[in-house]
Amino acid sequence: MSRTPDAPRLTPQFCFNQTALRDFLRISRGAVDDTISQNLNALFTPGAKSFDPSITTTRQPRPIGRRAIDSESCSQFKEKVLFPSWQVRSDTLNYCAGVATSPDPEDPDHVLREVEDVRARERVIDERLDPYSGRYFPRDTRTEALATLIRNERMVENIIRSRTWGLVGERCDGNGLGAEQALDAWRTKQSTDEAR
């Protein structure tokens, strides 16, 4: 089975370092979701059934779709690899979303933005000479940039999870739950197991 990356140490500095945040999400998705077909193929054991010579006497129809994987292997994969990977990414995105909505007193660009705002207010604007001179686009704060990144990454996460869950549903016995419902059921089971 795949080895998922360890959960990052969640700090505001980790969240504001967008390269580190993106790299963690990319590596985590690459280890499990991007290679879901290979991970599922690794669960299939072709020699599980012994050879039956009687199948050579009649023409066998070509199997439709992919071969199903036994339910025990599937549930182990989902519980030990897939759902924990999704949970770590959800925890990371939720934590960073909280950081993005909190005030940021340590913003290093705060003074620079204030200076740019003052300059923009003091400019003399003559739109007859330059119709674009009235435009001023203030730079985003760190928290605004982080909120935009989190919003985009959540959309990517939803797309990846639905694709992954579709492939898991094809190969494993689908229980009719969507990706988020299955993850919530796993979370509930984990919390009851921990309570014991």
TrEMBL record:
InterPro entries: MIX23, MIX23_fungal. Pfam families: MIX23. GO terms for cellular component: mitochondrial intermembrane space. It comes from the Eukaryota. Belongs to the MIX23 family. This is Caffeine-induced death protein Cid2. It comes from Extremus antarcticus. The lineage of its organism: Eukaryota, Fungi, Dikarya, Ascomycota, Pezizomycotina.
